[in-house]
Amino acid sequence: MIFHDMTWPELARVDFNRTLVLVPVGSTEQHGHHLPTDTDTRIVSHLAAAVERRRPDSILLAPTMWLGHSPHHLSFGGTLSAHHSVFIDMVVSICESYAGMGAKKIWILNGHGGNRAPLAIVVQELKNRHKDLRVIASEYWNLAKEPISRLRESEIGGMGHACELETSLYLYLDETRVRRELIQDDGALGSSSLFPTDLIESAPVAEVRDFKEFTQTGVMGKPSLASKEKGEKLFQSIVEALDEFAGRFLALE
């Protein structure tokens, strides 16, 4: 079920006792010299749509939210960012709209790392207001950490932003929009126990840094290792992991 394809009477007939509302959240921001500013939004939208196609009778796919919390990219330009309080209010309001329609379970699928901290507050605020509502927020790469780790070629630090992962996925989704001749590796590669620089590495501490502190082009990682073929494998593996999670969430009482 796709929200934007339905009328209000059709939505009113949705059985929310057996339906999971899937809310993709992306961003509009710089992704180096080779990827468009819609990268996070495009990737998470396609992933969410693929999951809905697997469970069309039990997932209601919400419109993707394209504005994220991206102040750490503003110094490069090519970025639209909502203040964290505005972002939180927007996502809470969107989810409360679904709750008002009768939603019992909401899954916020995040495609941008900068949204992670404010989304934690979103989940808490929604629970404070709606005791019977189950809301989960997750990044797609964390739910698919195992297959991503298996398919990657770069060392830790090679997957950060406009990197091997995102560039491969974009090449698979629409290779005509990737500026291949401008692909170059950049950023503080490598990692440490306190300050990992990789998407699938968790940090034991919280720190916010402007991207210009560790990259000249806006890239963090090794997009030179990206390929369309790898992107297809990554996409399908991520969808498998997300679909498996959707089944588990739907089965929860």
Structural class: alpha/beta
The top level CATH class name: Alpha Beta
Order of helices and strands: HEHEHEHEHHEHEH
Please count the beta strands (DSSP E, at least 2 residues each).
6
What does this structure look like?
With 253 residues, the chain is an alpha/beta fold. It has a single domain (17-251), classed as 3-Layer(aba) Sandwich (Rossmann fold), CATH 3.40.50.10310. It is 39% helix and 10% strand. It has helices spanning 8-12, 39-54, 84-101, 116-129, 140-143, 145-151, 164-174, 228-251, and strands spanning 20-25, 59-61, 105-110, 134-139, 159-161, 220-221. A 4-stranded parallel sheet has the order 2-1-3-4, with helices on both faces. Strand 1 (20-25), helix 2 (39-54) and strand 2 form a beta-alpha-beta unit. Helix 2 (39-54) crosses helix 7 (164-174), helix 2 (39-54) packs across helix 8 (228-251) and helix 3 packs across helix 4. The protein is globular and about 50 Å long. The mean pLDDT is 93.
What's this, in brief?
The protein is of the alpha/beta class.
Supply database-style keywords.
253 residues; alpha/beta; Rossmann fold; four-stranded parallel sheet; two-stranded antiparallel sheet; 8 helices; 6 strands; 39% helix; 10% strand; globular
Secondary structure elements and pairings:
Blueprint: H1 8-12, E1 20-25, H2 39-54, E2 59-61, H3 84-101, E3 105-110, H4 116-129, E4 134-139, H5 140-143, H6 145-151, E5 159-161, H7 164-174, E6 220-221, H8 228-251
Parallel strand pairs: 1-2, 1-3, 3-4
Antiparallel strand pairs: 5-6
